[in-house]
Design a protein that fits this description.
- The chain is globular.
- It has a single domain, classed as Flavodoxin domain (Rossmann fold, 3-Layer(aba) Sandwich).
- It has 158 residues and is of the alpha/beta class.
- The protein contains 5 helices and 6 strands.
- It binds flavin mononucleotide.
- Flavin mononucleotide is lined by residues 9-15, 55-59, 87-89, 108, 133, 136, 138.
Length: 158
């Protein structure tokens, strides 16, 4: 199984999650983990599994990440198993009722990425997932990298 994990990250937390997912997906020679700027569309050729991740910013993925998917030709992901993840804040952790209100309205990034991937022909390999940071710049909550590994193993198991 050839897998590609593509992500963007501002403070490094999404990068850590992407690396944990890559490590759990399969052998290093079968899995590439690349930050979005280095992810030429050519890397998609022959990929069986595509995992895309972004920090949630203003309830959405970063434009770099959504634009990469938007830029794919129609049907480009036909035959590819796809999955999306984000990093996010929990309204409880930051004790913000306002964030809670807007999250209920607008959600997070992973669901939007998942829809975009399926819109380009991808078949959903796992439900979209979010991994929590305890503050905007991190760190990740304890146990999130392990949870990311478990999510990836579920994808690898098909
Ligand atoms: C400008 C800005 C907007 C953000 N918007 C949201 C948001 O809408 N929902 C949320 O859960 N977290 C939000 N966050 C927190 C980010 O999700 C957090 O910074 C990110 O997960 C860290 O990932 P990174 O280290 O890979 O950049 C925001 C952070 C910043 C700086």
């Amino acid at each position: 199984m050839k897998a590609l994990v593509v992500y963007d990250s501002v403070f490094g937390n999404t990068e850590k999650v992407a690396q944990a997912i890559g490590a759990a997906l399969g052998a290093p020679e079968e899995v590439a983990v690349v930050r979005i700027g280095d992810a030429s569309l050519g890397r998609l050729a022959g990929v069986d599994v595509l995992v895309v991740g972004s920090p949630t910013r203003a309830f959405r993925p970063m434009p770099t990440v959504s634009d990469l998917i938007k830029g794919l030709p129609a049907g480009a992901l036909q035959g590819v198993r796809t999955a999306a993840f984000d990093t996010r804040l929990s309204p409880q952790d930051v004790n913000s009722a306002i964030l809670g209100f807007f999250v209920r309205l607008f959600g997070w990034a992973a669901e939007k990425l998942d829809k975009a991937l399926v819109g380009k022909g991808g078949s959903q390999a796992a439900a979209p997932e979010g991994f929590y940071v305890v503050a905007s710049e991190g760190p990740l909550r304890d146990g999130e990298l392990e949870r990311a590994g478990a999510w990836a193993r579920q994808i690898a198991a098909g």
